[in-house]
Amino acid sequence: MFSWLNGPGRVFREPLQGSTNYLGAYDRSGNLLRLRYGAEQENEEEDKIDESKLSDEEKAKRIEEKEAKEKEDRHKMPKERASDLRPYPLNNDFRSQSILSEELREELYKKIVDEKVDLSTVSALYGVDMRRVAAVVRLKAIEKNWVSEGKKLATPYAEAVMQMVPQTHFNRKLLEDPKKNFSHESINDLPVHPYTRQQIFYPTSESRQFTRADAAKVFSPTLLSADERIPLSELIDIEKDAINNVPREERTARIRERAEKKLAAKLEKERKQKEWEARNVKVVSNQRWNFRFESINVEEAGKDGRGRRGVGWRYGNPHHDRERGEIKLPTSVE
Predict the structure, then answer these.
(1) Which GO terms describe its molecular function (predicted)?
(2) C-alpha distances out from residue 322 to 229, 326, 328, Å
(3) DSSP letters spanning 79-93
């Protein structure tokens, strides 16, 4: 242990500034691998250039550029590669994932709370999953509430932890560049529906076009297509407009129009929900609690009493899995 601490482990006494400091980023001698990789790559580029064909002015300029680059590299740490993000050197399959930086979290909170931008729009704009955006907003609201109440935050501990893991920093220039995408993670992954786990051989004619909607109907009549089940279905329309070479101004107008329709539908749904609660929900208040009494229809529980909208269907309604004599295997094939 002491031989390792005095040898390769000596580099871990002082953490790297602005970089992760994982075991997988060093060799057995304690040398940072990406520094050696950068030097080898630079030497390969220098070997490609034949200095004998350069003039004296070009040679002098090349020497000045090399000295300036070396001076800059002394104060600048190379960015981590995929191999540098392995906390456990013997586990090559595990990579430490990036987390949201503090400035990016603050930007997400301002967009949602201050500018009243829709959650899905913010998710598509910054490349952050909608569930993560919602969690950031909730945690930021709690943090600001604590600050207003005068509670002390563990800021030094949070900053120390943030320096140990890779981060996705907020870059406004990259966000405003139409040719580049600002992304933190995959935001449009489609969850696997239980209906699609079965293997079905469905005959269809070769002369017809078999779409995703047709495939969904084969699995179940109530199953929506993949285009309708993904979290951000509006990205499909944006991509179609780009493929069809729609002018940028028209694409922007269509995006704005779709966002306005979505916001109007959301406000209309909230209005109807409030009207329904005003008619069917009665609130009785006391000193500590508010009791809500809601009008229900007994027919919503279904014929077997296990309907999704039935009262108490989540609590106290026993399953028949462990009852004696209950047949759990199918007895016929429809």
Answers:
(1) structural constituent of ribosome
(2) 35, 7, 10
(3) PP-GGGG-SSTT-TT
User: Nearest-5° angle of CA 275, CA 281, CA 283?
Assistant: 120
- Single out the residue of 138, 136, 122 nearest to residue 232, CA to CA: 122
β-sheet bridge partners, residue 294: 281
Q: What is the mean pLDDT of the chain?
A: 81
Which residue reads 């069809």 in tokens?
A: 244
Per-domain boundaries in the chain: 2-85, 99-176, 196-280
The CA distance from 65 to 48, in Å, is 17
Tell me how crowded residue 22 is: count the other CB atoms within 10 A of its CB.
21
332 in the Ramachandran plot: left (φ > 0), alpha (ψ -120 to 50) or beta? beta
**284 three-state secondary structure:** strand
pTM over 0.85: no
